[in-house]
Amino acid sequence: MRNSIGTSETSMNGTSLDGALLKVENLRIAFRTDEGQIQAVDGVDLTAQTGRTLGIVGESGSGKSVSTHAIMRLLPGTAVIHPDSSIQFRRKDGTVVEITQLAPTGREMRAIRGGEIAMIFQEPMATFSPVYTIGNHIMEAILAHEEVSKQEARERAIHLLDRVGIANPSRRVDQYPFELSGGMRQRAMIAVALSANPSLLIADEPTTALDVTIQAQILALMRELQEEMGMAILFITHDLGVISQIAHDVVVMYLGQIMERGTVREVIKEAKHPYTQNLLQAIPRLESLGQRLHAIGGRIPSPMERPPGCPFHTRCPQAMPGVCDKAFPETTHFSPTHEVNCFLYEGS
Ligand SMILES: Nc1ncnc2c1ncn2[C@@H]1O[C@H](COP(=O)(O)OP(=O)(O)OP(=O)(O)O)[C@@H](O)[C@H]1O
Ligand SMILES: [Mg+2]
Fold first, then answer.
1. Would the CB of 284 count as within 6 Å of ligand 1?
2. Is ligand 1 within 6 A of the CB of residue 65?
3. Is residue 194 a contact partner of residue 229, using CB atoms and an 8 Å limit?
């Protein structure tokens, strides 16, 4: 039922979501550039469920950020979402909106962005303005979506800082972002994101810049907050090791397409796709923590020169000439939740 909803700002009942909070179907995003068109995302399906975390994993350039920016309608003007793409989201009042049909800066999208879908990023300093205190940022986020007094917003800000594990919150609330350590800033950014009680939290590599101990603490905090607040999380990372600590379900992306999906157990313990198996072997060891993954042989092709067929075939140790370079493989199901797109399994 794609794009049959008509004009923007319209809603329908939630039956097409099958109980999910968010359903992304056949998402295709291209960028117009001087050198030509870049197909950054090519037919991605994602589902987010309340109380669950979907990990989105893949190397640099696989389209993880672009896909989630489309959900927030934060793409630049050069991006084109294909008209067959659908992003359905269940609002807090129970109505379902087709996000691709909303005006990015319109009233409904502004209410959803920040209010119902919030985002945290790898680099908190990109979110925080250096001239405002941590408290200003949280209060602004609260006041943008709720009619409460400034005093009440301030009290909520202090409570939120306390909740995300920042000691002495009534003093910290008046401090500037640069006065906080990296881990504390990341906690403060989570407080900003959670200030409007979102039903969906998108986390784009939120722990990549942190050392491994702080990273583990932030992941534990996110799990705890999810249990308490029941939101759905889309968690982006290039590290399957992090996925195993935070996600319930996983999709593995490569050059704008999904190679494998399943529960975290299925994808980590029973990985089928050679790309997933390579990512697992590339889980950062102690000596390389904090670096980006480069352990898989061969270069990631430029999206301007997407390989035909399965895009991974140019680097795949098990590629079959004449097969893998001809068409994208059909989906093979290993369980109701475990799916792989790879010719090694087609027809099995
Ligand atoms: N504004 C843009 N103009 C042109 N191409 C873009 C733009 N933004 C992203 N892309 C391209 O879209 C593709 C997907 O990018 P995206 O940022 O989603 O990757 P990613 O999976 O988030 O990677 P990373 O792990 O490095 O963050 C890349 O090839 C990127 O170069
Ligand atoms: Mg990214």
1. no
2. yes
3. yes
